[in-house]
């Protein structure tokens, strides 16, 4: 029975409203499936929330793309055969198929005949076939494979959408088949929509286990429907009943219904009746919740008082009714409860489920029964249920930890809060093991609520806050996790408990964000000062944390010469202490911190050794999270060495680990690495998709610094491609430049590069001049090389000779490396030789520049980095074009190659520059003599070649803007050109005069 066929239906067809973000997600899933990347969309929510309606709308959209849609509805009707929803699905698949699917399925036909005999005739038995019958498990697996292959085949031509409605009622076989199919959809054109009531699906039920298995797959997208907003409630009321109700009435409906569309329709019916009969609608709105509940009370009133009281107790026990538990809850003998359930079955208040269970006919029935209970009686019933569970399941209490936590906490204040808190912590631990991080956080939330009932002290509160912070961090709500860890650390500090202080900080040891750093550093320092010498492991982890925070967030000195600052000393000390302590957690923390501190090119070999140690420990412990950090370290190191093949191989393993852990912060690291490698390979569309995913992760709760990195990368992509889709990132980065996250000025560096790529030299120079001076510019270690490399190119672009000299000296020792971040990739900029070549050209060392750039071309080609190969070719063409006719032919070839590559890759700014240079070289090789120009015109042509506006030229040469404009017109006439771009390219190609006025030096 779907939501539309619910026994409490009012007869009004509620229109579909709202769900904009949900539809956006669904559209993305549908688009990916039709492109050959199938998967499962899990649509969860309470009864009446609109799951089936959403599935129908998605189906309509699929049909609009030409994809067939088939439905399978799970039922609880007695006698329904196993695989009932899949029988419906297969009939639909075979009926909708555009080709003879069965003819191609071959041996699978015999298996399918068991499910759809009318469509798949069973093969005639072969009397000579004396093979041993297949084992039941093997037969089931073969059947699952046959169904999977048939579904995939049915979707090959036009795609396929399968809707499994009311999954919470699925039989065990159907649920297992769904879980099997969900693992095999990645390379198909099939999208499965599964709707279910998450408040009625037990984790240990077949459907619950199937959902848990599906959520572990990367091809599964979970979607939970919540209530409609007030505006959407207003739209539903108006569209359903044809009239617009007052804002106060709508607000009351939204509040009382919780935005549940079913309730909105029920309440709206009463509003419509009041309006039609001339009664006060506002007065009717005040009694709407009671009126809606009356629908259920009438049905409950058909049974006697004894049955009603028994049902109330059973309702407290849960959605699925266990007779023994319900009897204990009601204080009845088992026979008395069974008699009451028989009467309830006859009244339609409960129904039988397969296999032989009983549940309430509708969640609203159960809700109404619980709501009508006096508080004192409800508390007493919870206590009875908790005691019964502990007695009845004494040998396997851990299996019932969630239920025991729920009922002991529900029994407050009549029970000892310590029992509820204890079970909540055990249940939360189980939830974390099952990767249900949100569930664990909710359990800790309830446990914290129990503290107000007494019996627990500050130590308990700190412990629970730490537990919730851990769960929230793993769930991706980093901001809330920071708030909990901060509160726990401060309470521990006030209580004089350094161990608890340390544990509060270390709960978020992987979070490197300035807002958290401001709390974590002083708490760590205070805890270290108070911890005894026996706490070696904790001391090692705290020192490791301080080293990592200093290296990434608060660099204390010049990070170009590593090895003698406090980060180095601390990280070495943390490793020593961790080895003395001998605990894996301490050693992993110390090694991770050490690889952060050594995240510069001259530490790359050390980092590979550290990664090997971490992976060895991961193999010994079987901990995928430890393995994750080891492999991420390898990705970083291989990128710095330019071995992208090895980096991509490690990244494939990281994808597998991320799919297993299902933690947003892990997903973020993998997404960032994928994005950086996509930039390096020139796959800018892929990089954009990874950026969009990273932005969604931050919006869902990840910390501020990661949002800053997203804006940084988006601005980098905007500069490389000129694509306006990335411009929003530049606006975000502009807002961040005055905040603590950009204290090193990296945002200004990338903004200046972006504006330079657009020819907005004034804005580029403004950001460049606001950077710290070169002497005081201290960068986080992992980002030191790519940020220095980007600023170095700016110095060359803006003719900052002093800055170019400093940048050249700093980059030269790292000439053979590649400009990549070193602690989870954010940006990638190719061989350092490219920047060295540009800098050498600015410093007037043309031969040296050409050598660097030729090396850069070879290195970028060898590493497979076409964007930076193209850039190096263009820069070498510019250098050669200045050296006279002898190199002009090669310069023309290089400029043409750079323009072609840039056009293929979608690098519009580079293509424009390279194409202009190539055209100018072709033109000048035939016609134009530089000696046609006067000395002043040559100066102005040189300034045009560097992108200056008329106003800037006037300022540099101390002439009026009008005079500069007239000079430009005369230059165009003499050279036979039509625009400034041609003059600029010509000037670049012929720049061999001594007249090179410079912009004022920047810092």
Q: What is the strand and helix layout of this fold?
A:
Elements: H1 20-34, E1 39-44, H2 51-64, E2 69-73, H3 84-96, H4 101-105, H5 108-112, H6 136-154, E3 160-165, H7 172-182, E4 190-196, H8 206-215, E5 220-224, H9 230-241, H10 247-257, H11 261-276, H12 281-286, H13 288-300, H14 305-317, E6 320-321, H15 323-330, H16 334-346, E7 350-353, E8 357-360, H17 363-371, H18 375-392, H19 401-410, H20 417-433, H21 437-449, H22 458-475, H23 478-494, H24 498-506, H25 514-530, H26 536-552, H27 566-581, H28 584-597, H29 604-621, H30 624-641, H31 644-661, H32 664-681, H33 684-699, H34 704-721, H35 727-736, H36 746-757, H37 761-769, H38 784-797, H39 801-811, E9 818-820, E10 828-831, H40 832-842, H41 846-863, H42 866-881, H43 888-905, H44 908-924, H45 935-945, H46 950-957, H47 961-975, H48 980-989
Parallel strand pairs: 1-4, 1-5, 2-3, 3-4
Antiparallel strand pairs: 6-8, 7-8, 9-10
Helix pairs in contact: 1-2, 3-6, 7-8, 9-10, 9-11, 11-13, 13-17, 14-15, 14-16, 14-17, 15-16, 15-18, 18-19, 19-20, 20-21, 21-22, 22-23, 23-24, 23-25, 24-25, 24-26, 25-26, 26-27, 26-28, 27-28, 28-29, 29-30, 30-31, 30-32, 31-32, 32-33, 33-34, 34-35, 34-36, 35-36, 36-37, 36-38, 38-39, 38-40, 39-40, ...
